[in-house]
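Quick question, first post here. What does this chain look like in 3D?
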Amino acid sequence: MVNSHLPQAPLEVVYYKSTMGNAEGLLRHVFSHGSDGVVVEEPVPREGRVLWTRGDVVYSLHLFFVEARGSSWAHAIENLVATEAATVHESTTFAREFAALKSAQTIILLVDDQTHRVWRGRHFTKMLRADLIAAGRNPDDIPVVFQIDHPCQEGVPTTPSSDIIPGLSWARCDHIEAFPKEKRGAKEALDRAIALYEEMRAEHEAK
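> Answer (accepted):
Ran it through. Tokens below.
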């Protein structure tokens, strides 16, 4: 339960991910650790709001999932928004994602340990940096948590986190392991993303 007497602080959180995976499922799991969670169903359910208590502050979180796209991931969101060939629905989606990057205060980048996908983490890191710059942001001003998922699918080769982490770097970042089948790690990743934001804000205020 959220203490209604505590001050509420808005915070914009972006999840940056591939087009695969269930954003709504992760949203609802995160909501189970907060209060008053609401999934925005239209145009697709990958946006939501939830109250999240940390110490003596209640954060009003706006969570938005931004997807890296393209078969070669060679196109930044800025270009996708302006693509004449895109449908109206796609253009609207790209524009909303671009707006989310413009306002993001902390970011969680989703990767996993399946060996055939490990390269995506490094590539998505480069794409995220390019998308933030296109959105007029300085990437070094925004903390990133790399959430390393362990799907634990039988028969699928995996790579140890110790071999994955060196390829996932940012000016201010951390790495959190998550185990979707056990519903463990997503809450910790979000908490850490907020903590990194708090640390950066405190440093700026101290200057």
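Confidence is low (pLDDT under 50) at residues 70-74, 82-86.
The beta strands are 8-17, 35-40, 47-54, 57-67, 106-112, 144-149, 173-178.
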